[in-house]
Write a structure and sequence with these properties.
This protein is α/β, with parallel strands linked by helices. It has one domain: Response regulator (Rossmann fold). The protein contains 5 helices and 5 strands; from the N terminus they run E-H-E-H-E-H-E-H-E-H. A 5-stranded parallel β-sheet has the order 2-1-3-4-5, with helices on both faces. Helix 3 runs parallel beside helix 4.
Length: 131
């Protein structure tokens, strides 16, 4: 049976550390948690997990990152892996960027930084329940 993974992408390590703590606290060892500090690193992880037969259920991505913004990254994820649920985490995205992600990436939810832990966990749990 393939392991199930959640991938978080943010250029700030402190954000990734917070996400890791909150998800492990609420979901325990039910999932594999992967973390990337750029879209490029995230693609490497996605390819590696796919090669290992792991199923990526959900991606949580920041919007404002160097080189590739989250809406573009999530759109590319959707094109290649439409089955993955996409959540955008942002403190900077404007309405247009969010709408673009909704249209091009089938964005499931957008959560604004600083986020409320309960809101984040509810969004992730609801997204995982879609599978």
């Amino acid at each position: 049976m393939p392991r199930k993974a959640i991938l978080c992408v943010d250029d700030e390590k402190i954000i990734l550390d917070s996400l890791k703590l909150q998800m492990k606290k609420h979901f325990g060892n039910d999932y594999t948690y992967e973390f990337a500090q750029s879209a490029e690193e995230a693609w490497e992880i996605i390819e590696e997990l796919k090669e290992e037969g792991e199923e990526i259920l959900l991606v949580v991505s920041d919007w404002l990152m160097p080189y590739v913004k989250g809406d573009k990254f999530l759109g590319e994820v959707h094109q290649k892996h439409p089955e993955i649920v996409k959540v955008m985490l942002t403190g900077q995205a404007d309405r247009e960027a969010i709408e673009e992600a909704q249209q091009k990436a089938n964005l499931y939810r957008c959560i604004h930084k600083p986020w409320n832990e309960a809101e984040l966990i509810e969004a992730i749990a609801a997204g995982l329940a879609k599978e």
